[in-house]
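Support request, please re-run this one:
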Amino acid sequence: MATAREIMHTNAICIQSHDTAANAARAMAENDVGALPICDAEGTVTGMVTDRDLAIQVLAAGFDAETYEIGDLPQTSTPIIADPDRDADEILATMAGQQIRRVPVVENGRVIGMIAQADVARELPEPVVGETVGAISEPTT
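Re-run finished. Output below.
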């Protein structure tokens, strides 16, 4: 099977906790992505922010996206990251088991790429894609 490096896309960018929700939304739009890793000044991933987070936890909650800082979003757990040489099967199992759609790929403490459902669909055989997407999307009980 492939490695994380072989299936990731490399245009991943980070946002910092002091950036605003509006800046995060603009960065997502400019880069055509639905999530960004939140990184500290050294580039270490400290969390993730998704377009859904911005819509529900900022806009729908009535906050001003121009002043609401990303660091004020509740983070539910330690972010899951992948080593670039990690086997893709292991990453897909983690994505399915944790029901997460995106995983930052980190080398030497810095984000070098992301693996998203779309990357799985482009890079892997159809049966793997179907199983992974199905598991990620399975309603929790």
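The domain at 4-137 is CATH 3.10.580.10 (CBS-domain). The chain is about 40% helix and 15% strand.
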